[in-house]
Amino acid sequence: MADSTTDQAHLISRRRLLGTAGAAGAAGLVAGSAAGAFGDQAVRDRQAPLTGVGSASVAFHGTHQAGIVQPAQAHGHLAAFDLAPGADRKAAAALLRRWSATAAELMAGQAPKGDDTGIALDAGPASLTVTFGFGHGFFDRTGLADKRPTALDPLPAFTGDALDAKRSDGDLWVQIGADDALVAFHALRVLQKQAAGAARVRWQMNGFNRAPGATERPKTARNLMGQMDGTNNPKPTDANFDERVFVPDGHKGADAWMAGGSYAVVRRIRMLLDSWDNLALERQEKVIGRRKSDGAPLSGGTETTPVDLDKVGPDGALAIAGDAHVRVAAPASNQGAAMLRRAFSYHDGFLDDGAPDAGLLFIAWQADPLKGFVPVQRKLDRGDGLSRFLRHESSGLFAVPGGCAEGEYVGQRLLEG
Ligand SMILES: C=CC1=C(C)c2cc3[nH]c(cc4nc(cc5[nH]c(cc1n2)c(C)c5CCC(=O)O)C(CCC(=O)O)=C4C)c(C)c3C=C
Ligand SMILES: [Fe+2]
């Protein structure tokens, strides 16, 4: 797991580097950065050590890439890139090397070399994570088809899909999350500029979650339907967590390079909020199988009480209905199939009929999509009471390699193996 260095003593923010070294020497620490372009004022402004949200950082280097097990941040950007015509394996390797070095700098709160935008100049890393993945087409374009994992075979079509091909798939995928909107956008902009000549943005989506500190104590985030979403996710402390989420070490075969990696299924799921909001609270709760106020299962207890799918109420009916989302999606209903859900909400304005163009950027992480997303979505597609309030509008499946050590880059084992 990538180390989450929230310990204040280990936090390295751009401000702290400058504060410790002193203004004059500090200019050298960010050599090639925007500091020179913004003059003395920016340097003076950055002398006090950062505290709070801005100071938290996540390590870029590690066994797994960051942005999988860490809590989803307040701001997210998802971007898919297609390799430019003529960009080959060498060009792809150079891009991943450049992107990895930049992500490591940004996540440590340092200005990347050559950055002249100044967008995040005053801020610390704000829990920034940058995660890179490869889509199906990447392997053909780089002459690496023999290394493509079978797990990247296209997802089956589902009856409820209304997918927009232009906003689906892609050769490369970047997931960015940060607890500050400018830090998140800055990372996206820097990476997009660095891709010039090698890859072009195919689609891009923006998402959000509640800001840290918005609730009296840390709580499970709510989605735009108002439900607590993420309660029954696999936990890193579960004995089988790694087995479910990450490709095992010592993994053999053409895709041995995926050891320590994970597969991300990305779905832009629009919520039919006008219909949902018109549903009485009791009906809404029945559709999910949990109470809206506190996320407790309708079989009783509190949010964290295990769901009892066999519980029958005084009226003789199942406490959690046959088509309730949590029943249909539960590992117990899917031969143990499970995934780690780490989503962002999105809102892209209003459609012509006045309905919000809003929903969930659903991201499911698993060691094998055929043992995670696919069987569960097949079942939801047929029998989920929630599905009549949802439209799956875009879809992507990406191989997200394991993390890298200092001096290496993400995907090196594939591109140089
Ligand atoms: C294919 C997998 C899933 C899709 C797609 C999906 C979409 C989706 N879900 C919600 C809201 C909730 N989901 C909840 C639980 C839940 N959902 C899935 C899978 C998919 N959801 C699973 C595996 C689970 C856990 C089931 C269990 O073991 O109990 C919940 C309950 C709280 C929780 O446990 O997170 C809510 C609420 C929405 C709104 C949505 C699409 C927009
Ligand atoms: Fe769900």
UniProtKB/TrEMBL annotation:
It catalyses: heme b + 2 H(+) = protoporphyrin IX + Fe(2+). It is found in: Cell envelope. GO terms for molecular function: ferrochelatase activity; heme binding; metal ion binding; peroxidase activity. This is Deferrochelatase. GO terms for biological process: iron import into cell. Binds 1 heme b (iron(II)-protoporphyrin IX) group non-covalently per subunit. It is an enzyme of class 1 (oxidoreductase). Its main location: other. Belongs to the DyP-type peroxidase family. Residues 220-404 form the Dyp-type peroxidase C-terminal domain. GO terms for cellular component: cell envelope; cytosol. Keywords: Heme, Iron, Lyase, Metal-binding, Oxidoreductase, Peroxidase, Signal. Its EC number is 1.11.1.-.
